[in-house]
Amino acid sequence: MFLKNTWYVACTAAELQEKPLGRQICGERIVFYRALDNKVAAVEDFCPHRGAPLSLGYVCEGKLVCGYHGLEMGCDGKTIAMPGQRVRGFPAIRSFAVVERFGFIWVWPGGVNLSDPGKIPHLDWYDNPEWAYGGGFFYINCDYRLMVDNLMDLTHETYVHSSSIGQKEIDEVPCQTVVEGDLVTTSRHMTNIMAPPFWKMALRGNKLADDIPVDRWQICRFTPPSNVMIEVGVAHAGNGGYDAAPEHKVGSVVVDFITPETETSILYFWGMARKFNPTDAALTDSIREGQRKIFSEDLQMLELQQRNLLAHPDRALLKLNIDAGGVQSRKVLDRLLEEERAAAIALAPGNPS
Amino acid sequence: MFLKNTWYVACTAAELQEKPLGRQICGERIVFYRALDNKVAAVEDFCPHRGAPLSLGYVCEGKLVCGYHGLEMGCDGKTIAMPGQRVRGFPAIRSFAVVERFGFIWVWPGGVNLSDPGKIPHLDWYDNPEWAYGGGFFYINCDYRLMVDNLMDLTHETYVHSSSIGQKEIDEVPCQTVVEGDLVTTSRHMTNIMAPPFWKMALRGNKLADDIPVDRWQICRFTPPSNVMIEVGVAHAGNGGYDAAPEHKVGSVVVDFITPETETSILYFWGMARKFNPTDAALTDSIREGQRKIFSEDLQMLELQQRNLLAHPDRALLKLNIDAGGVQSRKVLDRLLEEERAAAIALAPGNPS
Amino acid sequence: MFLKNTWYVACTAAELQEKPLGRQICGERIVFYRALDNKVAAVEDFCPHRGAPLSLGYVCEGKLVCGYHGLEMGCDGKTIAMPGQRVRGFPAIRSFAVVERFGFIWVWPGGVNLSDPGKIPHLDWYDNPEWAYGGGFFYINCDYRLMVDNLMDLTHETYVHSSSIGQKEIDEVPCQTVVEGDLVTTSRHMTNIMAPPFWKMALRGNKLADDIPVDRWQICRFTPPSNVMIEVGVAHAGNGGYDAAPEHKVGSVVVDFITPETETSILYFWGMARKFNPTDAALTDSIREGQRKIFSEDLQMLELQQRNLLAHPDRALLKLNIDAGGVQSRKVLDRLLEEERAAAIALAPGNPS
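Output (structure tokens, whole complex):
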């Protein structure tokens, strides 16, 4: 169960170069490529001639050429040409709305005519000298909602990430969850604690003392379909915490774009955007590697949790206060899924309109 | 089709240390751990909070702690505590009767209330200065009964293990199979033959000549659910064979505990207990390595036999005299499975009692 | 859907030495071995005793001996002997007609009584001093008919094999497809073109200039069940092309025997027979390695095409003029499959005859 009429990250802009790229998004095999003037395009990864995967082909003068028999495919899913053939009667394949923006390639797996680039989330830090960004990518065999749950309940840091960002105080300080329309926010503010290793590293990276008490915050924001942005940071204690002046704190945004591949697998694009010391490329690298190590600790847990849930589909899981972020996010998703389902029925041929 | 109300070896005592251990036994995913005072415990490998595998957690002060969000599980499957939560209403998970004895951890996959530690088979050689023991472990993709068949018909040694313990005379001397209650015994006594390589090694290990004729015996004993103990040995010929005085013979017990993982996979715990030269640790090692090599020769045969049987479920296999041990063992199993089934119906809610 | 009453290549003669060889052919697991006087034999890879794979056994005095308990199997699928057993009542297993000829082992997966060695295709080049032959073998996860399509439409060379045998002119020159009974022939003749790299190498191998225009031909011949022989070559332009005198040309036959393993996997035996410079073993090697590299370029395309077709079983593929070779070959197959089906019904017990 995925939302289809929405934007998902398909790949980073840097992943898509001269060669076409085949990815499965919400169950659809799609080939992405750069057409004329570097404009991104996306069509079904299925040649209408004999079913070959177009992603094994190449791009020539902005046209996607099938690597099997040379059929030239257009961005709209219509065959442009094929050596020695008249192609007018060739069946079209699906094309997908796709946009390059903010360093990512965004795809809309639903109807092209429903797509609206204005709905792509705005990423403040992109191409902004006040910010630095680093990120990476994992394949994980789990339902995308298990990853949303994970990111909307950071008490797991205490256990899964005990040597880096976890600390007992996360468990001890309750979180607040607020729903405003499609936005779900879960916040936790800890005061007068010692920073865990990752944040000590970040404090030093911003030339701040790492051995005195700090205030720490975590503000998780879910927006559909499965984007979770988490403001995180620490400030030297007693300077206002989250609202402290820049010279007292280090803060950043954990960026999570979760793209369902199938019902039980995801493409997970993670990263961190920070507003301190943005020109320090070595710091960007060390944060990225720290984050890669931390996020890799979740993989086995999520995949074996998924295995357990598939083996026991009948079991109702608990919905505790710490789970409120995930629970509310799923409620937003359920409402939107129902709206999408209803809209599809209304649009179906033969329906009175 | 496995017996559930019976004891199976889950792991060796040495395998279970500080970290919890997840294993699948008779289709159930179970986590084993050492609670207070090193006492072993076993519960479902499924956290009642969000379905995470408890085996990825850790043990703290005798409590199993979920590695995802810190839920503390008790030996009885009831949640003890969770940071910031009242746990009284949490659903319980299954707990399993489990006993550490004779160097193994034994689990009873059926009802805890039906479990009886008195039914764990007694292992004479454990912690006994007259005996030495060495063993190992394999995963094999086959029905546990194929392994019982294998061990209750040692004519296969002539073919599968021709370079170590096999010899033509095994085929030539008929075996006798006797059933007494749940015990099935298949015996073969060969007289005045030359010892095969493994037994020459053992003779030398006991400082006996290896180049003169011997009498050789094999006495396989099956007991439910799937334990096969095989008395094996050779004596210098003419001294009474199996009954010869200790100075004329080398004898040992091949130990086989077969634990069904699924319908078509097993945990296979094998070993050898010997009553000669028990303090010679180097001999224990060389016997263990010899046995590992020998038993690994069975793996491919059993797995491809299983593949063949799955592809031809309709074919009736032959039941020859050499198969009597396996055939009788399956009859015992079938009777006990039927008893277990009948008892489960009698106990079912709504049944007149 | 495979033809069963026909000959398939099971392995090369060189592959079958002292040890039995287990292969799956048209869904049947078969063990091949050399019986008395090196005569090949083939029976089900299933021991009638306990279902063990006979291919794990060995051959002794022309008899296939089961490696589990020593049952001796005859070429006709009847048990000959077993230590300590009377075998007269043992159920027979299927035996298969099998012939060693032209360097290959040929098997007839259908009824033995219907088999006719006279229907094995004649291979001119075998054991013929005017010819040299080299070849190899791949497993590929695709329907055998996708490989037939591939070989009966060589326009794919332009795309899949662009650096070796592909060239634009293949696309530009139309092919002719002719059906004569069960034989489907697709031909293409290109005149006054430059030879692509593979053929330049072959020209030099035959001491001919590689930098002047040539005429090039491709004559693909499909015969059931799935054999494709392709006459290919180049001649210095203006000497009659395909009909040029030997001193002006290099020509060879691409040999393709495609044996279905399952509905979606094949054993693919490929090779090249050439009539020039036959004693140059180094040339044979370099052609074989060139061909191996070229044919390996098809593997991923065929396997992902198969994946796409399995995901979209409802989609009708295009049948263009370039596809005529494959389309006609499938028509021949469909007709023969229908004949085989009708014959099976007529022969079925209980049918009026």
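Chain B has a mean pLDDT of 94.
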